[in-house]
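Here's a chain:
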Amino acid sequence: MTVFDLPAVRALVDAALAEDIARGDLTTQLTVPPDLRATAAIVAKQEGVLAGAPLVERVFAALGAHDVHIAHPVEDGATFTVGTVLVSLDGRASDLLTGERTVLNFLQQLSGVATLTRRFVDAVRGTKARVIDTRKTTPGLRALEKYAVRMGGGHNHRFGLDDGILIKDNHITAAGGVAAAVGAARRGAPHTARIEVECATLEQIDEALSAGADALLLDNMAVGQIAAAVQRIAGRAVVEASGGVSLATVWAIAETGVDLISVGALTHSAPAIDLSMRIGA
């Protein structure tokens, strides 16, 4: 099963169509002969990395347009330039027009995530650091946006709160300290689960290591602090840097020797890629 076959994604496609169509496509119904067939192409108006192409089939299937023929000259994860035909379609003109906006909305959003991710991945190339995402995703789109991160060459952090143990500052406060939080997590966690602790100071790093943390998230540290922390940890735990990472700073952070760099912007601030569908193309 792919991400596109998940029940949540199928429901999302249905909801997106219902949002756009409601009681019907009034303009198309009044202006386009119902049996008119047409070809169309989804064309890039700027360069980027494609993600979400299989959703084209899902959208038209959910629309009931089963005789739309779709070709994919560009695969997910591939780069494209201005003017590239990303998807070719052939079917009833009314179906193509009714599904147009929903298809473009998905492709523009997901390709935007993949494109921004690729820029971060390229920016740290040559270091050992992996670029990873966060849970700062668009509600309902997490599975798809995290898929888009992978298409951009990035890696995924947790998919949800049930997907890993990450003890953050509020957990530490509520539990009564780093050692108490790690100890409680260790006693209740499955033996296969790693425990990661968010650290804002070198003292918290020492506490987390002494308590047996498997990974440390260095939160909003300056590059010099990150470098000192990496030296202090000395390979005793996986090291993740997080907080305010940008394309201007990510290389310097990667050079400190961290294993992971989490970037919330991959999903919460990626600009959509401009695409259009042209009938008769």
Summary: The chain has eleven helices and twelve strands. The first helix runs from residue 7 to 21. The first strand starts at residue 37 and ends at 44.
